[in-house]
Amino acid sequence: MKQFGLLQSSPSRIQGFAKGLSSSSFILSWSHRLYSPFNMSHKTQEPVINKVSELPIDQAKWVTLKKVDYTDQVGKQRTWEVATRKTRGKAGVDAVAMGNIILHPSRPASTMLVIQYRPPLDSYTVEWPAGLIDAEETAEQAAVREFKEETGYDCKVLSISPVQAADPGMSDANMQLVMVEVQLKGGDEEPEQRLEDGEHIQRVVVPLSELYDRLVEYSKTERMIVAAKLFHFAAGMHFAQTQKYF
Predict the structure, then answer these.
(1) How confident is the model at residue 7 (pLDDT cuts 50, 70, 90)?
(2) 10 Å Cβ neighbour count for 4?
(3) E-assigned strands of 86-219?
(4) Number of C-alpha atoms within 13 angstroms, CB side, residue 199?
(5) How many Cβ atoms are within 10 Å of 160's Cβ, its own excluded?
(6) How buried is residue 38: exposed, middle or buried, by Cβ count under 10 Å (0-12/13-18/19+)?
(7) Residue pair 203/112 in contact by the 8 Å Cβ criterion
(8) Residues 6+ apart with CB under 8 A from 25
């Protein structure tokens, strides 16, 4: 299994990362490897940005830039710079993210997060499994495939959201949130991931009751960023449990 890790970082970074994983309810699991912050043996170094340079549009494989000329609500002519993906298929949707519920007969309902290095941020991101929809796929098919690749687990689709804007001020990129469920048995072993070359993804299981607090802890850790859609979900759960308005 390819993994990311922080054990060869500075002591302060190691301590910060371990702190975010250290509660007993987090470490005790049906698969200890999923919960342990010390399962990083395959890592040989921290990723390093060697160079950042301008990329000519004709050399870009995945994204491109466009200029939109439009007339606004009061009749004024305006322009807007838009980043757009080159990979959108017949589904008309770029990507899926898999919100997931992990069910086990003797453990609390949990969710599986993935942690991976993201070069645009030069940081590790805490996310739900996600991926691009292939040219001939539906969102449901992509969700099942990507979840299997990144986590190793088969899943059952529970619901599919309407199409959502990913970053509407900068891009026309869109996505759908697919909620999935994984049913485990007491003796199940941790399956192998099916990662592509260059993918180094650490799986982490967090009880749903601890998700918001765990993400807050991750966000305090050096060189780690929580993905917005994941945090928004957790913050919504937390607000619903603590608010006084309804």
Answers:
(1) very low
(2) 18
(3) 95-104, 107-118, 123-127, 130-132, 156-160, 164-165, 174-183, 202-207
(4) 17
(5) 16
(6) exposed
(7) yes
(8) 108, 207, 210
Scan for tokens 């990723």, then name that residue.
47
What ranges in 73-210 are assigned the alpha helix state H? 139-151
DSSP-derived 3-state class of residue 163: coil
What backbone phi and psi angles, to 5 degrees, belong to 214? -65, -40
pTM of the model: 0.83
Looking at residue 146, what DSSP letter applies? H
State CA 216 to chain mean position distance: 15
Token couple for 177:
């949130």
**In whole angstroms, how far apart are CA 162 and each of 93, 139, 205?**
10, 11, 27
119-174 pLDDT tens trace: 999 999 999 999 999 999 999 999 999 999 999 999 999 999 999 999 999 999 99
Average pLDDT of the chain to the nearest whole number: 86
